[in-house]
Specification:
Layout lengths: L1 H23 L4 H23 L9 H24 L2 H7 L5 H9 L6 H17 L11 H22 L5 H28 L15 H23 L3 H8 L2 H13 L5 H19 L1
Helix pairs in contact: 1-3, 1-9, 1-10, 1-11, 2-8, 2-9, 3-7, 3-8, 4-11, 4-12, 6-12, 8-9, 9-10, 10-12
Length: 285
Amino acid sequence: MTALFALAASLLWGLADFGGGLLTRRTPALTVVVISQTIAAVVLGAIVVATGGWTEFGPQLWFAVAAGVVGTVTILAFYKALALGPMGVVSPLCSLSVAVPVGVGVALGERPGMFQLGGIAAAVVGVVLAGGPQVKGAPVQRRAIVLTLLSALGFGTVMALITEASTTVTGLFLALFVQRVTNVVVGGTALYVSVRRGSPALPEGGFPWRALPALGFVGLADVAANGTYSIAAQNGPVTVAAVLASLFPVVTALAARMVLDERLRGIQAAGAGLALAGTLLLATG
């Protein structure tokens, strides 16, 4: 069951990230975050009421609040990185998020084995190569790489926090609801500040009514991914769940290849693949 739910989380995160990155190319990233998470919060609120999840209220929900704050910054950074593209480089680099559980283990006294040390080396080299060192052509923007690495740290932190926010299925619904409400509050505040500073809140054509189904899908897929990952981590080895869930960038990269027909230079593809291989070694070593 751990493998099944973790792979489901990977698929859902990958599709949500692809959709969010695509929407951000036409609509401000903060607006995408606020609208998609508002839709998710409304749906989750109805589920919490229907299942009686509100009875699971307790101090563990502070983990959900923290996940909401970190998650908002993470999603925003990642969507901006995807908008800068190419997705086939940005998304695999984000798989470095799996390094967070490894870092927690080291802080608690564990020491990296040979495979993990190899993973660290592979990931570092992969980051450099994915940045596109070359003689001709334009490299991947440095800002996209920085935003992606920030996103990786954030995703790993959210994965750790949301696992601690509940111990039951109904409690999980409540935790995810609290996380989404926090997303909306933090994202909405940032959007308000951004508008006051002169940045547009909407695309040139006005409110993206036609994009509402896509925005709803992004928000709900992200919620479902968080939920399935939490179930996977609570019912089996966290390392196994983290490794399988960290494969979500592959889904995003494949979607970009099929839908956007993105073509990567050889050195970029090699770097992204090496970073992905390094993260798997980090988690399984």
